[in-house]
Design goal:
Blueprint (H helix, E strand, L loop, with lengths): L1 E4 L5 E3 L18 E9 L3 E9 L1 E7 L1 H4 L17 H6 L3 E8 L16 E4 L9 H14 L3 E7 L11 H5 L5 H12 L1 H24 L22 H7 L9 E5 L8 H19 L5 E4 L9 H13 L3 E4 L15 H16 L11 E8 L2 E7 L5 E3 L7 E4 L6 E2 L1 E5 L2 E5 L8 E4 L9 E3 L8 E2 L12
Parallel strand pairs: 5-8, 5-9, 6-8, 9-10, 10-11
Antiparallel strand pairs: 1-2, 1-3, 3-4, 6-7, 12-13, 13-18, 14-20, 15-16, 15-19, 17-18, 19-21
Length: 463
């Protein structure tokens, strides 16, 4: 086998093994293109329009899957804000996306289905919106070609993207596998019941429609052996085949499907990141989105994500408390999500060290009589109360009973108090499912929700 790149017309050679597997390393040129790559063995294949740049993996559930344009009758993919305008101006021949076909597998696979698409008005409607806006921001700020591998699937939990051996090796994760095995075992009985319930639901939904009423929620399909929410099987089918591919880093938007086990997520999410890095043999940057406000999302899942950013090296978190929808878990403003992820990459990976990439992050507290003074990292030129007095602060004494608190900015710090709490010991900020906070830095980035205490919360012990 001979592989030749058009940039210097140099050829790398290798011999396939008995199974037909082969691999070569071809030195690539500086960023640019397009180039061609020719493969010559018993036959000859030539790839056209090959760019030299950097590739980012974009993964997880529906908010990453969410495309730029609406998907008709999907019920969830409603298109990004101003999608007609975004599609019309999507003329970026140096931004390309490969969308991995959605599959599950019992064992690690070697290949995936998909093809590269150039960002244009004809194609970008099907692109992952978050990934596209991330890439667009990088390209516009650097001029470098950006490739994206979109490997995402709605409703999927983090364990689905984690290798089986990782789940088996930790006592805190084994209940995931045990629960899955039990669900699969009872599937024949469960699917029969589900079909009956589904038929009844369809009848009742039609009746509700005739009455002009909204139907009740549909019954959930039981876990089957090839369910997309199965543990480890997405890793096998949609991550393992990508491991030989050289990547710059990964962006991730997930957590909704693990919110009821948020305390476990503190450990599971870092384990998954480590698993990916071991697979790629690289400590690549891993940037993720903190879960937006929604009625189904506990504050603990945002805390688990914050702790991951603070404890796992070379990670970053885009805070989007100002870009959610309390009634729709798929908020349409994906532009701000992609752009805030890109701030991390620009500052950390593309040399733009003056870029402010994070909003305020709680650092420490000090009790001063009946008040608590808070210090922050990433104040970005100073703290700002956007739109008026600070909101979403609560305070408690040792009785752990939180009440609404007042807060004001004093220099680079915050002072928090309540006349109802004379001996405060803890403060929480935006600690609810649908917060509406207004603490920012001068760079316009919102503060992450936080709490100063470590008292047990709702999901402690759930695995």
């Amino acid at each position: 086998m001979q592989v030749t790149g058009s940039w210097k017309n140099k050829t790398a050679k290798t011999v396939a093994d008995a199974a037909g597997n082969w691999q070569v390393k071809l030195k690539t040129p500086k960023a640019g293109g397009p180039f061609t790559v020719r493969f010559k063995g018993k036959n000859e294949i030539q790839l056209e329009n090959v760019l030299s740049g950097e590739v980012w993996v974009a993964s997880c559930q529906s908010n990453m899957h969410f495309p730029v344009a609406p998907i008709e009758n999907s019920g969830w993919a409603t298109g990004v804000t101003n999608y007609e305008e975004e599609i019309a101006k999507a003329d970026y021949p140096q931004i390309t996306m490969f969308t991995v076909a959605r599959e599950v597998a019992d064992e690690p696979q070697q290949d995936v289905e998909g093809n590269w698409q150039v960002a244009s008005p004809a194609t970008v409607g099907d692109f992952s919106a978050v990934a596209y806006f991330f890439a667009r921001e990088l390209y516009e700020k650097t001029g470098l070609p950006v490739g994206l591998i979109n490997t995402s699937w709605g409703g999927t939990p983090a364990e689905g993207w984690t290798q089986k051996e990782v789940l088996e090796s930790d006592a805190d994760f084994r209940p995931i596998l045990e629960r899955y095995a039990a669900d699969v075992k009872k599937y024949p009985e469960a699917i029969a019941i589900y079909k009956q319930e589904l038929a009844q639901w369809k009848r009742e939904a039609e009746e509700a429609k005739d009455r002009g009423e909204a139907p009740a929620a549909a019954p959930r399909e039981p876990m089957r052996p090839k369910h997309h929410k199965s543990p480890y099987k997405l890793y096998n089918a949609m991550i393992a085949p990508l491991l030989p591919y050289t990547i710059k880093g990964a962006i991730w938007y997930q957590g909704e499907s693990n919110a009821d086990r948020a305390y476990q997520y503190r450990k599971l999410f870092p384990a998954m990141i480590k698993n990916w890095r071991q697979g790629w043999k690289s400590d690549f940057p891993f940037y993720f989105v903190q879960i937006a406000p929604h009625r189904s999302q506990r504050p603990e899942i945002r805390e688990a994500q914050l702790l991951t950013m603070q404890t796992v090296p070379n990670t970053g978190m885009a805070v989007v408390t100002d870009a959610g929808d309390s009634l729709d878990i798929h908020p349409r403003n994906k532009q701000v999500v992609g752009e805030r992820l890109a701030l991390w990459a620009l500052a950390k990976d593309y040399g733009q060290k003056q870029t402010v990439y994070s909003g305020p992050v709680y650092k420490s507290m000090q009790v001063a009589k009946d008040k608590i003074m808070l210090s922050f990292d990433h104040i970005g030129g100073g703290l700002v109360a956007k739109g008026g007095e600070l909101k979403e602060f609560t305070i408690a004494s040792a009785d752990q009973q939180f009440v609404l608190a007042q807060a004001r900015i004093e220099g680079d710090k915050l002072v928090v108090w309540s006349e109802k709490v004379k001996n405060p010991v803890a403060v929480r900020f935006a600690w609810e499912r649908i917060p509406e906070p207004n603490l920012y830095n001068k760079a316009g980035l919102p503060a992450t929700p936080f709490r100063t205490d470590t008292w047990p919360a709702e999901t402690y012990g759930k695995n």
